[in-house]
Amino acid sequence: MTISNKTKANNTGRNSVVSGSDHVVIFSKRLCYYLVRIPVSLFFMIFYGNRFFGYNNMPVEGGMVVAANHQSYYDPPLIAAGLRRRLNFLAKKQLFKFKPLAWLIDFLDAIPLDIDGIGYEGIKISLKRLRNGEAILIFPEGARTWDGEIGEFKKGSLALAKQTKSAILPTAIDGCYQAWPRTNMLPYLFGKIRVIYGQPLFYDDFKNLSEEELRELVKTKIIELFQKIRLNPPIDSDFLPTDF
Questions:
Q1: Does the chain have fewer CB atoms within 10 Å around its N or its C terminus?
Q2: What is the tally of helices (H) and strands (E) in the chain?
Q3: Domain range 19-243, CATH architecture
């Protein structure tokens, strides 16, 4: 190995934690992730008075799939802002074609996913990160809602959890549809948003379920959480994560 190749290999070793055929996770990106959370949290607090419930329900370690309903483009940063652990995001490869958005997605170290094809590379990276004890955010509906309601879950949407024996954290979000509906190019700048994280489902809880049964179980959990913050929103300060 030449000196230049050695230097390149050493730099890669220092900076990356996971590498694929064309995707390398950089420590500097992960540091930036935590720095970005501060202005993101302030933005949602100022304009939407957002509140988080059940944020202590997420296990502090181990592979985790955070499964949530999908209301708007706000969902990923908002859900991530309420959790102490870092979340990995899945992003359609098509989004990388728009340069400013591509920069932001790459800055947050999102996993590119080809939803029009088989998408082996994105799945492979996701599996690696889950087996490495990381957390990944997924939207089982596969797309943003058209009417604010929770739609059908896509087949295979929770397969990553079963394959890696990772826990699943049911999560519901409400208010993002009103703040930024799918039909709008831009969001409304004021509103009220709530996010609730439910009790985790560990592998032993669903290892004997079929993929279809698992989808129905997780969907039921998310709907229950959604109705709780939508119809009976907690308003007093005694509402604690242990209530769920």
A1: N
A2: 9, 9
A3: 3-Layer(aba) Sandwich (3.40)
